[in-house]
Structure formats: structure tokens, C-alpha cells
Amino acid sequence: KAAPIHERYEESFTIGAAVEPHQLEGTSGKMLKRHYNSIVAENVMKPINIQPEEGKFNFKEADKIVNFARKNNMDVRFHTLIWHSQVPEWFFLDKQGKEMVKETDPKKREQNKKLLLKRVETHVKTIVKRYKHDVKSWDVVNEVIDDYAPNSRGLRESAWYQITGTDYIKVAFETAKKFATKDAKLYINDYNTEVEKKRDFLYNLVKEQLKQGTPIDGVGHQAHIQLGWPTLKQMEDSFNLFTSLGLDNQVTELDVSLYGWPPRPAYPTYAQIPYEEFKKQAARYNDIFELYERLGDQISNVTFWGIADNHTWLDDRAREYNNGVGKDAPFVFNPDYKLKPAYWSIMD
Ligand code: XIL
Predict the structure, then answer these.
(1) Is the ipTM of this complex over 0.90?
(2) Which are the contacts of 197, defined by CB distance < 8 A and separation ≥ 6?
(3) Coiled coil located at which positions (predicted)?
(4) Catalytic residue selected from 253, 276, 293, 320
(5) What is the CA(18)–ligand 1 centre distance, in A?
(6) What is the mean pLDDT of residues 291-298?
């Protein structure tokens, strides 16, 4: 039987996987119990699933994951309290059903802002109170930086931002802090945190928020990476930068795509992926885990955005750009949960 990944990294950080509730059963469930000591919901804890209508919380699917974690003694990462994507429209409609972003009257804009911040508070409070004894790490806000944003600070101009400025960030963290347990950690999570321009926008925002007293404990680095991008140096510099602010780092959505961006050429089926690619991927996994381990004091968790190559969101992305054809293979287990070369390189 293959040695558990989490035991290999016990001294450094916990090892997690993102899952849908149906993956808690069968072979994937067994893999979860054996190789990981942390778990995160791939979708069911996002705003659209957890509060699809105002005041109607749906905890059924999220509970399955939390119960599984409890039973198997795993940590839970909560993903995600606030995000611009997979969020229901009702958040941004005023009491008359008008889109808040279209409001031009200054007085009404002020009322809308208040209403939205109240909704942030209620959303965060209700969830945090329910899961506080199970969740160790909270993604409080996700992807609030957009390096292509028209403003000079790289702030994503989502509806949250257009209606409240950066107050939604502050209120989300403050509310989470108020209701979470003392030892829980609060994260600001984003992708491409290794890329200098985006990294610095994130750094400046976090620094400014910390100065204002916003209770941020760490940065979540999604790490949707590729065989040759970003560089190890970019990764290391980013961890170091956030550590210099006194923050923890977590790697929250790791996958190593075989493709560039946009994903071309996509191999149509798994069988068509040349073995050479898996060797390159193993070398890449070796390098990044070596880095993570060396920076073990600065990184408290490494989470894969899936378990095995039979289930990855990257397939949807590959197909989207290749007329519905394409298979990616980002993990250390193959579609039959067998060990790939990458498994051996991270276990060495
Ligand atoms: C993705 C899921 O994996 C997909 O199943 C879903 O269709 C879209 O969202 N950044 C994030 C994650 O923070 O929540 C996203 O997850 C992947 C990118």
C-alpha cells in the first residue's frame, strides 16, 4: 500500500484535497482518508450554494464534508465566504429589486452600501457560527485583486467593490474574527500571487488593511500552475514577501496543468498523453515540494484542487478552448487512483 502523503509532510504542513460530496464515498473516499489530513469543498460552500436565496441557507452538502472531516480527524478549510463568482444575484439587488450597481442617486447608493454590508455580516456570521468548531482556516475573501482592473490599485471592480469600495473586505474579516474560534486563521485567497504585478497589488492591499486593523492572518496562494510557469523564484519571493508582513501562507488550490494558457494543444484523451509529460510533471512536483518543505515554517497547509486525474476543473477549461475536446492530468494519482511518477517525486 502506498505511503500516505500527509505523513511524509507531517513536520511541515497539512495536506489537503478539494472535493465534491459524492467523492466522500468509494475509492476517492478511501484515498481521502489515507493520504490527506485536511479537506476543502470544491463548490458546496460557495455563496451561491450556501445561501442561494436571502435568508435561506442550505447547509446539507457542506455538512457532509464537515461530518466526514470530523469522523476522520481531518482539518477543514472553508472556501469561500465572499467571492465575485458563484455568488447569487440577490446580494446586489436593493429592496425594490433594482440592481445596486446601476443606482446613481448618492443617498440611495449610501443606503445600498449599508444594506450590502449588512448582508455580508449576516452571511459570514451565520456560516462561521455553524462551523466554527470544525474549520481551522477560512477563506474570507477570494480573488479581490485583478491586475487588469481600470483602477491604479488593482482592486477587482466586482459588484462588491462598486457598491462598498473595500469595506466589504474589512467587514467580512471583522465579522469572521468576531465569531470564529481564537485559533482559527483568516485568509485572503487569490491566483497568480507569484506574478510580480498582481502580487504587489495584493501586498499593498493587505498591508493597508492590516494598518487599519483588519484581522488578516494569512494569504492563500491558489497555485493553479503549469509545468514551466511560474518560476520557483517567483513562488519563493511571494511566500517571503507575505511572511515579511507577519502572515502565514497556505497553498490552497494546487494543480500542475500539462498545458499553457490558454490550454493548447489539449490531448483529447488520457491515453494520448505521452509518458514524457508525466516525467516532466514529476520533476516539477519534485521542485515545488522541495521548495514548500524548505519554507515549511512559512506554510501551514498545501491543498490539491482535487484528488486524482479523473476529476479536475482543468478539463472544463481545456475543452472550453479546444472545441469540447481535451484532457488534463494535474495530480499525483491517475484516473484510476494509481500512483503517477509525480507521487514518487513528492514522497522521496
Ligand atoms: C472552480 C471549481 O473547481 C469548478 O468546479 C467550478 O465550476 C468553478 O470553480 N479559483 C477558485 C475556485 O477559487 O473556487 C475555483 O473552483 C477554481 C479557481
Answers:
(1) yes
(2) 147, 154
(3) none
(4) 253
(5) 10
(6) 98
